[in-house]
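Researcher: Go.
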Amino acid sequence: MTTRKPTGVIVPMITPFTATGDVDEAAVGRVVDYLAAGGMDGLFLVGTTGESASMTARQKRDLVAAAIKANRGRLGIYAGISSNVLEESVQAARDYAELGVDALFVLPPSFYPVPEAALEEWFRQLLDRVPLDLLLYNIPLTTHLSIPMAVVERLAGHPRLLGMKDSEPDIERLRIALAIAKRHAGFHVLVGTNKLFVDGLALGADGIIPSSANLEPGVHRDLYRAVRAGQQEEVQRLKAAMNEVLVRYNCPTLGETIAKLKALMAENGLCERHVLPPLRRWQG
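Model: Structure:
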């Protein structure tokens, strides 16, 4: 089991690229330093905001290696192993374990419709074979599949299951996840949708995973602390500040949103605007 628990504010970090599509290692270092200085608790690498669906295995490994080198043990490192090919996910897990990540996370397979029993078996095979603890990652916006909470309940208690990140804006689903966590020590619940950050933390979630923290880590650090301290007026002020950050880069499509987020970070000297196809650079 990992000794580094997934709590606090964990940033789904963007992946800086060069004009030729390589991972920009210098920019990775600047972003990691910026997030560490902003009081973040961890980094979610090779995820949705990081353009994982467009990255090659080499690019993913290069990103993880560069982030670990820049991190110098300051923040928890969580790396995504999602693939529709089971063996690719297992191999990625082994590669990242060798590099020194703290834990892994994985989306459900998408493309084929997956019955509940088959989805459970898929996750169980991964859990039985990966060398590190694993978080389930639920985000129907991209996978078009919601991981059934009955599957999560049956998997809870597996020695490799660290918990789940849930980006589905469903408060009742979140309550069920937190109830599972109470029944299974070591199962952590992370909220991945800004609509439920405050309510989720108030109900007992372990942490939040805000893409907007790439821009303004301090706002999210302070929001987390204010909720934990029960400072209601401060929570409302910081929630409004977080929403202002979101408005700055939120676009009609997810791809445009990621591109604009990078453009704003480029204005701060953190990275370049480059994104991978099929995404296009923000031109605004």
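Model: Strands lie at 8-12, 42-45, 76-80, 103-106, 134-138, 161-166, 188-191, 207-208.
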